[in-house]
Structures are given as structure tokens and as C-alpha cells.
Amino acid sequence: MSKPFYHGGQAVIEGVMMRGERNSAISVRRPDGKLEIIRQPLADIYKSRLREIPLVRGIIVLIETLVLGTQALLQSAQIASAEEEEKIPPAALWGIIAASVVFAVALFFIAPLLATRYFDIYIASDFVSNLIEGFVRIGIFIAYLKLISLVPDIRRVFAYHGAEHKVVNAYEAGCPLEVETIKSYSTAHARCGTSFIFIVLLISILVFALLGRPVLWLSILSRIILLPVIAALGYEATRFAARHAKNILARVLLAPGLALQSMTTREPDDSQLEAAISALNEVMQADKGSD
């Protein structure tokens, strides 16, 4: 018996991207009110056996999320603004991804380290120092989510995020993909990227605590080099918890991330649900056609 496949996606500008087994699809609301749907096959690396190898698959999924997510955001921005669609140069795509990664590492890993080290002379314990750094990191993450949620355009993206979750929740429950029947489903989902990031932040506290408190340059280097390892561990923890959601330990692990999703999702309107439904239908149809 083949393993069940779990669909997922992300919100984009005025739309939703869904990822299937062999294809992805984005559905974006154009300025004239109509939905434009674009499908594309996934690169071989995203469908390879590497996705079945523990820890390795976490790094593959992270790369896939960065590449597909950034590409989908750029495509949706073009469609939603009625700009003439042009193929995004690979150099530009990778440049944006690199800049995003540098920003995230600097804000969520280097900044908390520097802030904590400033007060290190008052902290005797290496473990306590790493624990404080971890709490500062989580605090910055929550403050960042709160800050960007004040931007009207981001709030609309968060509504599409809620639509994506409702549609996936309904599909996994066997519910017909119709707007009225999907409305009652939750805007939170166990496999959400918000939950994944929060688990990564928690795991980073434990990993960095094992390193003690080396000199500053070595600490900075460790935050950069160990990030893929921490992300891989975070993916495995999220995957386990999502697949065993009725387990008490899993529910405890997922609870903070699910609570944080109240900041990254909003109740969608009917048009936003329609975009999410059309994206999921498109990617399932594409996968069926490529069997």
C-alpha cells in the first residue's frame, strides 16, 4: 500500500499556491476579478527518494519551500498587479532567496546572540545564557509577526493563508471542496510553516546549549552552519507531531505553533476560499494526468 500524500501550500499575493506529488499550482485573483491559474511540474529533486530519507528530507523541503515559495510570490505579484508576465531570471530568483535567508539568519539568530552577549558578564551559566538567547529569539519572532500583521496587504495574505488551511483541512477530512462546506473548518493546521518555525526556534535552544558559550565569532559561525541541521530536526519533529496529533506529547509540541497561527492567518472571504479550492483542484488534476 502506498503512503498517503499530504498536500500543502502557502498564501501568495491575492492567491494561494498548492503543492502536489508531482506538480504545483497557483491561483491568483486578477484585477478584473477573475482567477488565473498556473501549474508547473516539480523539479526532480523534490520528487526523488531523498524526500524519504530522515533529516535529509527536511533540508530538501526547506530548499523547495524557499524556491517554490519565492517563485510563486513573484508570479502572483505580477498577475495581481496586471503586469506583463515575463519569465523570472534564475539569477534574480536566487538573489532574492539569498537576501531573504541572510535577513532571517541576521534577525532571528545573530541579533539575539549579540543582544545576549552584551549582558554576558552578568550571566554565570552557559545554559542560562543560551536559554535567554532562545527566549530573545522567540520574542523577536513574535514581535516580527505582530509588526507585519499591521500592514494591510499582509493581512490580506494572512486571509489567503487561512483559506489554504481551511481547504486542506476540509480535503483531509473528506469534505467536498465547496465554499459553504469548507467555511466551518479551522484556519490552523499542524503542518503550517509557522508551527515549523516555532519548533525550529525551540530546538535551536537545545542544540546551542550543547555547544556551551564559545568565543563570539565561533558562536556566530555555529548559528549559520548548524541552521540546516536544526531545520532538519525541526521538520522531523513537525512531521511526527502532525502525524500523531492525538498523542499527548505531539499535542503539547504543536500547541504553541497552533496558537501562533492566530497571528499568521485570518478568516477568509468566499473569493479567497475559491482561490484556494481552485489551486488544490488544479494540482490534483495535474498529478492525476501525470500518472
Give a structural overview.
The protein is an alpha+beta fold. It has one domain (8-289). 65% of the residues lie in helices and 8% in strands. Helix 7 (193-210) packs across helix 9 (227-243). It is globular and about 60 Å long. The two termini are 16 Å apart.
What is the number of helices? Answer: 11
Radius of gyration: 20 Å
State the strand order across the main sheet: 1-2-3-4
Low-confidence stretches: none
- N-to-C SSE series? EEEEHHHHHHHHHHH
Roughly what fraction of the amino acids lie in strands?
A: 5-15%
What's the main sheet like?
4 strands, antiparallel
Helix content: 55-70%
Give the secondary structure arrangement, pairings included.
Elements: E1 8-12, E2 15-19, E3 23-29, E4 35-41, H1 44-47, H2 56-80, H3 90-118, H4 126-148, H5 152-172, H6 179-182, H7 193-210, H8 216-225, H9 227-243, H10 248-264, H11 270-289
Antiparallel strand pairs: 1-2, 2-3, 3-4
Task: Give me a quick take on this structure.
The chain is of the alpha+beta class and 291 residues long. It contains 11 helices and 4 strands, in the order ββββααααααααααα. The relative contact order is 0.16.
